[in-house]
Amino acid sequence: MKNFINEDKIFDLLEKAKRPSCHRAKNIIKKSLKLKGLSPSEVAVLLNSEDDVVLNSIFTAANQTKESIYGNRLVLFAPLYLSNRCVNNCLYCGFRQGAFNTKKRLLKVKEVQDETRALISQGHKRLLLVSAEDPAVNTDYLEEIIKAIYETKNGHGSIRRVNVNVAPMGVKDFKRLKNTGIGTYQLFQETYHRDTYNKLHPSGPKSDYLRRLYACDLAQSAGIDDVGIGTLFGLYNYKFEVLALLFHAMHLEDKYGVGPHTISVPRLEPAQGSDIATRPPYPVSDKGLKKIIAVLRLAVPYTGIILSTRENAGLRDELFYLGVSQISAGSKTVPGSYSSDKKAQGQFSISDERSLSEVIEELATRGFIPSFCTSCYRTGRTGEDFMDLAKPGDIKNFCQPNALLTFEEYLLDYNPKLAKKIKAFLSSEVRKIPDLKVRKLTSSKIESLTRGKRDLFF
Ligand code: SAM
Ligand code: SF4
Fold first, then answer.
1. Whose C-alpha lies nearest to ligand 1, atom 26?
2. Where are the domains of the chain?
């Protein structure tokens, strides 16, 4: 396995784009509005732009790009932590070996079902399974619990898409994981800078940089065509990391005909027993995070960007306008804590502690449509098929009505009070569907939902 992240090339690109002129940056921003993405050298220019006028133009263009591809939808999900017993020693993480004394715990199948029921009762339809690298979280275990999650019902509700963020595995195991019906397989490189990576991961299987770098390749080879990448911002220079993410995306696109389905942008949060997490070696300011998200939105316009509850409510509300397309809400990072009131220390501190209903109310007030849609992956619109639809903008004919249908379902089953409050907003959103046939069909499907039908989608 060859390291396809060419560090010298990245440093060279950043050096050549040092102190760019406003004129050059503005031309690149203008070009980005064609929605064809940007080259690494163009991204380096935007990353090196510090002028406030240029930054504001980047933010405006990111907002415009988000609007034209994703409209005013934001997809919601919750992480479900399975285990905090870890064989690794990532120096920034609250789960690392010996980092803290909280009881180590691996959820049993019945406990996973309790957690699932608790999340369904809030209105969730999409879960992200997260686990420390625990040898007990093997393929047999994952098969059993994913089956149990999909079978769990609570009232009208159920989980319709399970995404997974667990340690890398071999192709044979990835094939078994695919057969459980997962959506996306996610894995963050944490830092693409190899020396930094080696220092921060002193022991355990995760100390192998290339094993991690090639995990998404193996998942793709096993037929998992929606993969998610990310880095943990704060560990190394963010400009380097954004360019490395871009090179990773290009590598996947070259090899498998489709880039990553999502990019996550976690920022280091305090974690018990970790000096690095409390005092990040390369702190990223709020302004820096805004720039990261906006530049990524312009660079890879059709790739989903995921924002977690690591960020506080006020900042998250601002970042929604810059290109984020998926967010977690109401998250807990202690295994078992949705269904019981365990006050144990989580993997890291959560900053946005609002409940799912509070986040949804805020989103609707701001004119966003919270979406629980899972229809693309359930109808086979994944990987290259998804991108083929997304690129000419056709995905809007599915996504906007599906977002409205899943939001309506949420309001009927979990938040009738809010439903009354935003009735006019929802009707006006239906009226905005451009295609008359789709608009009429959406209205009739909404009618069916109010009469008790569920899970209607295009
Ligand atoms: N254990 C697996 C792994 O490391 O890939 C899977 C999930 S791990 C629980 C999820 C992610 O949490 C990691 O990839 C890392 O980026 C992030 N993380 C770890 N410590 C963190 C911290 N102190 N602040 C914010 N995110 C953190
Ligand atoms: Fe374990 Fe993942 Fe935390 Fe590393 S980041 S210590 S692998 S849970």
1. 268
2. 67-388, 394-450
What's the CA gap between 301 and 11, in Å, rounded? Answer: 24
Q: Which of 87, 89, 100, 188 to mutate to test the pocket of ligand 1 (most atoms within 8 A of CB)?
A: 188
348-372 burial, b at 16+ Cβ within 10 Å, e below that, comes to bbbbbebebbebbbbbbeeebbbbb
2 vs 279: CA distance, rounded Å: 33
With a 6 Å cutoff on the Cβ, whether 368 touches ligand 2 is: no
Closest CA to 161 of 141, 184, 179: 184
Q: Per-residue pLDDT tens for 37-92?
A: 999 999 999 999 999 999 999 999 999 999 988 889 999 999 999 999 999 999 99
- In 3-state terms, what secondary structure has residue 267? strand
Say if pTM beats, i.e. exceeds, 0.90: yes
Query: Distance between alpha carbon 206 and the CA centroid of its chain, in Å?
Result: 21
Measured from the CA of 206, which atom of ligand 2 is nearest?
7
Specify the pairing of strand 326-328 against strand 73-81. parallel
CATH classification code of 67-388: 3.20.20.70
